[in-house]
Sequence to fold (144 residues):
Amino acid sequence: MISTLYDRDYYLWLVKTAQLLRDSRLSELDIPNLVEEIEDMGKSEKRAVESNLEVVLMHLLKYKYQPAKRTNSWLLTLFEHRRRLDKYLTDSPSLTAHLKAVFADCYNAARKKAAIETELPIETFPEASPFSLEEVLDPDYLPE
Fold:
């Protein structure tokens, strides 16, 4: 039975579930586990954009508040994580609303991470983000 397969062989469960969907054999689907997996996929997408947003914010803070330590590595990190965000938002534009909703929380996490990594006092970094979401997502924006 496919519902027991979920616990025994997750990959095989995915393959069989996809085949059942393709064949329109809906009555044979393991609905409870399928619903859980779909919900988890949405949560995973949200966590991924939050993580990438935090990385970009942290590097923008480092770039702005440690100008003497700027490196190409920081620029590469900014490029890569902005690129990832762009892909997520292109594939799922509705995630933009989520980014707006969690922006302040992500900034607070990035602020703490920047303080830890730079060994600068947390007060060095403003309590509210000095960057707008548009600036954060702009592949050409760098704070001076």
In short: The CA atoms of residues 85 and 91 lie 10 Å apart. The first helix runs from residue 2 to 8.
